[in-house]
Design a protein that fits this description.
- The chain is of the alpha+beta class.
- The protein has two domains: 128 residues, Probable tRNA modification gtpase trme, domain 1 (Gyrase A, domain 2); 94 residues, Elongation Factor Tu (Ef-tu), domain 3 (Beta Barrel), CATH 2.40.30.
- 20% of the residues lie in helices and 28% in strands.
- The chain has six helices and eleven strands.
- Strands 2-3-4-1-5 form a five-stranded antiparallel sheet, with helices on one face. Strands 6-8-7 form a three-stranded antiparallel sheet, with no helix packed on it. Strands 9-11-10 form a three-stranded antiparallel sheet.
């Protein structure tokens, strides 16, 4: 059996506890992307200032439920925060240990392309099994080789658009209000994204602007995730999906 499970990921289940409750409508007013349309979709939960608290993928689950594919280390905190926003609504929010996140680098086996970037490969959810084998290190190396940041160590407290949310399909500007929407929409309207999260070879990383480091991954010295000024970036050094965002307008 091939190793496909991402043990560094967890799944949060949101379930209506009455026929009148609408889980998608509840989440729609909190997160950056449209969760009332086609799923899965990539989204974030932000601070009121538009800075990243959590990033995740939202999946359909049937019977009015939604599943959130998120970092395992932050799953309990994310579930707690969503529960606070729930107030008196009859919606259950809990980490579901019976569901696992799986990944493969290729496409075409009936799973779903990663909603951020198809080159990331395919993902799916499945019941946990004692036979699950980990592929977290291979996933991380693949993701970083494509220049895609993920998780709180790399993205936490960074403005959502500076975390490449537009380019990675993580924001909908026509969906209505959500937490952090005002500053996020203003930045987009003014085209004022002055910094970017970028994945760079470790030997070219700016230690003062470094968010995360992975010396054991990748060719040569490894990778780092830096938070750099757009004016200091050379588009030729960036992955193809990121270049248009930092290229000077003609």
């Amino acid at each position: 059996m091939p190793a496909t499970r991402l043990f560094d990921r967890a799944v949060i289940r949101l379930s209506p506890q009455s026929d009148e409750e609408d889980v998608a409508a509840f989440l729609q007013g909190l997160v950056t992307n449209n969760v009332m349309g086609a799923l899965p979709t990539y989204a974030g939960l932000l601070s009121p200032q538009g800075k990243t608290l959590f990033d995740f993928i939202v999946w359909p689950a049937g019977h009015g439920q939604l599943l959130i594919d998120c970092e395992k280390d932050g799953a309990d905190e994310l579930a707690k925060r969503l529960s606070l926003y729930r107030l008196r609504r009859k919606i259950a929010v809990e980490v579901d240990p019976e569901v696992a996140v799986h990944w493969e680098a290729h496409l075409g086996d009936g799973a779903v392309p990663d909603p951020r970037l198809a080159d990331l490969g395919q993902r799916w959810l499945a019941p946990t099994s004692a036979d699950d084998e980990p592929t977290d290190a291979i996933w991380r190396a693949h993701r970083l080789s494509l220049g895609v940041p993920e998780g709180r160590a790399e993205m936490g407290d960074i403005l959502w658009l500076e975390a490449n949310a537009i380019e990675l399909n993580g924001v909908a500007f026509d969906k209505g209000c959500y937490i952090g929407q005002e500053n996020t929409a203003r930045m987009n309207w003014r085209q004022k994204v002055n910094r970017r999260l970028v994945v760079v070879p470790l030997d070219r990383s700016d230690e003062k602007r470094r968010r995360a480091v992975y010396p054991e991954l990748g060719p040569g010295p490894g990778y780092a995730v830096d938070h750099l000024r757009v004016v200091d970036l050379d588009p030729a050094d960036l992955p193809a999906w990121q270049r248009p965002a930092v290229s000077p307008a003609e």
